[in-house]
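Before going further, learn to read the protein records used in this course. The integers have meaning only within a learned vocabulary of local backbone shapes. To see the layout at work, look at the sequence and tokens printed below.
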Amino acid sequence: FLELQVWVSAAELIIFRYVAWSSHSKFDKKATFSIALVVREGRLAIGIGAIAAIAIIIGQLDKIMVSRLIELEMFGLYSIAAMFGLVLTTLGYPFSSAVFPQFSQALQNSDNEKVKQLFHSYMSIFIPVLFAVSAPLLIFTSDILNIYLLGEAVSDSQVKLVQLFVIGGVFAGILCLPNSLIIASGNLNALIRYNSGTILIYPVILYSLIDQFGAVGAALSFVVYQGVSCFAIILISNRLSRISKLYLIFARYLLLPTLVCFCVTVVIRFFFSSVEFFIVAEIALH
């Protein structure tokens, strides 16, 4: 399995390098290495690398602690629940990748109106997609788990684990776009300070909640971390670019979509309670 991952990664590297190098007519294929360019961009690269390293540590810390403090079977169920949160987080990656170069260009041109327009446009597309997927996952958690586990009995703790990870995944997905805006600005000091603070505080919260509530406590710590990070990173990005008033951002992209999606999903569930789950899920997603 590991050998296969190495070969796939190597092929991906070669293909992506070729596509990147040939994607722009102004790229000189005979260009030489420039140490001055590396030094000039080195500080930004180190900052992004530090942020990525901290994110990796925090992302794996819960699994390390959970694997030592709970039974192996529950750890397996915890890992399945975490997968649902990762699905929602991953939804944010293509949107942030698409908007990042546009953020960079607008910020380079000091065009703050363009930054605002891009932020609101992409959030207005991404948030409905995110909530349309997450709402049915929360409403039909037990049914989805039952199908995924091939008919095995689903306990209340399993349902709670998945629901907590879905909520945390929503927060993690939302913060992808403001995070891209901060990185595009090149001003990473506030983001680095925030991440440095979380790597000191998060393990304490994680250990305390696992000690009290087991795997559910670990999932709850994930929700707390992602929720606080979502608010903090939006606050930092807004301070850098003055996108809008904070309460308007949170009302428009968090509270309103939550209310609309769950009202619609609950109504659908009420009217189609006697219909097969597959049909209800399909309608709810639409």
About this structure: The chain has eleven helices and no strands.
